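Justification of computing resources. Each target in the renewal requires a structure prediction run like the one illustrated here; the chain below, 109 residues long, is used simply to show the kind of job we budget for.
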Amino acid sequence: MAHAKTSYVCLPCRASYKQPFGAERQRVCPGCAEPLIHVGSAFAAPRRRDTAAWRTLTVLLNAGVRFHKSCCGGPGFRPRTLREVRERMNYARRTGEPIARALVRPDVP
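Resulting structure tokens:
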């Protein structure tokens, strides 16, 4: 039986790769030889020239947010714009909520 593939991302190259999951080895980008970030199997990469989407993705990944499937199918809410990221970061600063948790909130009170 073949192993399911999952997504890995290189932020400097703005590239996404589907590879079999295996925690035992470090994957590197074929373009720049930097380590790839495991983002999960429910990830859909933005277009390479969409700089705002890649900046949003960079904030999410650096905060520890990933795109793993949940029991209902998808990864849940993830901000798509820098405005949504800023709103949630400001909320996290005001309330003291961890940034990773604030970033995946569907609504900010």
